[in-house]
């Protein structure tokens, strides 16, 4: 077989491994992806009618505090100075999110100082004092008090899970951040921004090496494909970033995911909502939020008479849907442990990335994890013959 390493999946995990293996170790790498484009969920495309860059699999904002990841990604793209902020509509009024002093003072029509606001929220959160919250609803109230919880969290979470929060486990949320300043910058990370020339340019540069051979529209489980599971496992090391349950033919059962349906519309106005993301926190609208992608790149000369919006509807994924967020129930975790045991026994196959580990990973986490796997397993294997596990 004319390749040293097969990478299944061209998302940021797979691309990072392939890039390092080709550029640092000089290996010939084959990346396969069943989609007709590279980049996994970070992929975006330019809408031909408006010229607006649309994140096909949902809004992707790059952010990290990891110096190594920041240095690494800057080899392939520069980043704009975009700073992410989110607003939310409740009872016909727009509030800044995440909940901060501005949200609190607007909501209570007050002029509270940080200390006064902290004292108020503490008092309101005392409703279930001394009790162990049994569901997400009670947990939310015990974290930030009933008024703010019911306005900003309850229905939004209910829509995300298509389940009343009184029927959701308390474990879904461990904390609900409240900021006692007016800072409504969404991410707390040292670095954030959007790739200046777009996601696809960034992702394509990672694979831009004659030693990297990309085969699109190729499913690892299609036995007729040259680099299928049947043909490559046992012949050549494999980095597998597809779904772990699929790899083992669902032998331990299906791992559950949530998905999002995007309803996309082009509107005859230069600006629909004045910002990139507006959440809808009440249950009078069925969608969770509206994304207006032109606002991710205010520095670009987009058409001024048209805009694109995407409404997001959240639901449980069925077979054939895009798996986006792990549901991660007790049952899922038990199955995952069984799959991890199977994966360990699969010689010369490394399971990585979001689908391969059944774990939500932000882009910087996927890249960081891939760099660690490269350092700890792939390089030692090819440089010194160490086992890949
Ligand atoms: P993926 O990007 O999912 O790539 C896996 C690839 O494997 C896919 O291309 C898939 O087609 C391929 N594949 C699967 N099975 C097979 C098979 N059988 N044969 C061949 N190929 C296969 N991160 C952020 O940092 N900021 C954000 O704002 C952000 N927003 C997100 C919004 C959504 C809705 C989602 C789902 C994710 C978001 N992320 C965000 C996370 C980001 O997309 C991940 O970091 C990234 O998906 C992880 O990369 P990955 O390589 O592990 O997986
Ligand atoms: Na393995």
TrEMBL record:
This protein's cofactor list reads: FAD
EC numbers: 5.4.99.9
Cite the entry's keywords alphabetically.
Cell wall biogenesis/degradation, FAD, Flavoprotein, Isomerase
User: Does the keyword Transferase belong to this entry?
Assistant: no
Q: In which pathway does it act?
A: Cell wall biogenesis; cell wall polysaccharide biosynthesis
GO MF, any single term? UDP-galactopyranose mutase activity
- Look up the record and give one Gene Ontology term from the biological process aspect: cell wall organization
**Where is each UDP-galactopyranose mutase C-terminal domain found?**
151-360
Catalysed transformations (reactions): UDP-alpha-D-galactose = UDP-alpha-D-galactofuranose
Superkingdom assignment: Bacteria
What InterPro entries does the annotation carry? UDP-GALP_mutase, UDP-GalPyranose_mutase_C
Q: Fetch the Gene3D superfamilies from UniProt.
A: NAD(P)-binding Rossmann-like Domain
Q: Which GO terms describe its cellular component?
A: cytosol
Q: Give the enzyme class.
A: isomerase
Briefly, what is this protein's role?
A: Catalyzes the interconversion through a 2-keto intermediate of uridine diphosphogalactopyranose (UDP-GalP) into uridine diphosphogalactofuranose (UDP-GalF) which is a key building block for cell wall construction in Mycobacterium tuberculosis.
The record describes its quaternary structure and partners as: Homotetramer.
Which family does the record claim for this protein?
Belongs to the UDP-galactopyranose/dTDP-fucopyranose mutase family.
This chain belongs to the protein called: UDP-galactopyranose mutase
Per the UniProt entry, what species is this protein from, by scientific name? Falsarthrobacter nasiphocae
**Upper taxonomic classification of the species?**
Bacteria, Bacillati, Actinomycetota, Actinomycetes, Micrococcales
């Amino acid at each position: 077989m004319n390749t040293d390493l097969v990478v299944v999946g061209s998302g940021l995990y797979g691309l990072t491994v392939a890039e390092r293996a080709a550029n640092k170790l000089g290996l010939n790498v084959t990346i396969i992806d069943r989609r007709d484009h590279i980049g996994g969920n970070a992929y975006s495309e330019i809408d031909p009618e408006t010229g607006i860059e649309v994140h096909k699999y949902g809004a992707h904002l790059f952010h990290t505090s990891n110096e190594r990841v920041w240095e690494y990604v800057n080899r392939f793209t520069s980043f704009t100075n975009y700073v992410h902020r989110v607003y939310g509509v409740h009872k016909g009024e727009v509030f800044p999110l995440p909940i901060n002093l501005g949200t609190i003072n607007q909501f209570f029509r007050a002029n509270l100082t940080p200390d006064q606001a902290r004292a108020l929220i503490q008092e309101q959160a005392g409703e279930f004092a001394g009790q162990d919250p049994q569901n997400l609803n009670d947990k939310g109230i015990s974290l930030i008090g009933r008024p703010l919880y019911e306005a900003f969290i309850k229905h939004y979470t209910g829509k995300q899970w298509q389940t009343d929060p009184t029927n959701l486990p308390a474990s879904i949320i461990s904390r609900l951040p409240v900021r006692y300043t007016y800072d409504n910058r969404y991410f707390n990370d040292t670095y954030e921004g959007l790739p200046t020339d777009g996601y696809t340019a960034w992702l394509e540069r990672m694979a831009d090496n004659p030693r990297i051979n990309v085969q699109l529209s190729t499913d690892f489980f299609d036995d007729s494909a040259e680099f299928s599971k049947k043909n490559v496992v046992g012949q050549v090391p494999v980095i597998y970033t597809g779904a772990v349950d699929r790899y083992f033919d669902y032998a331990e059962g299906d791992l559950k995911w949530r998905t999002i349906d995007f309803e996309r519309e082009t509107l005859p106005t230069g600006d629909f909502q004045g910002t990139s993301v507006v959440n809808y926190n009440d249950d009078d609208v069925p969608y969770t939020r509206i994304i207006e992608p032109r606002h991710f790149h205010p520095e670009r000369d987009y058409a001024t008479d048209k805009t694109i919006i995407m409404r997001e509807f959240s639901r449980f994924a069925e077979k054939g849907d895009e798996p986006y967020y792990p549901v991660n129930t007790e049952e899922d975790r038990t199955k995952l442990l069984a799959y991890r045991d199977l994966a360990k026994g699969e010689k010369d196959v490394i399971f990585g990335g979001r689908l391969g580990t059944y774990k939500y990973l932000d882009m910087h986490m996927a890249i960081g994890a891939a760099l660690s796997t490269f350092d700890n397993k792939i390089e030692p294997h090819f440089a010194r013959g160490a086992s890949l596990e």
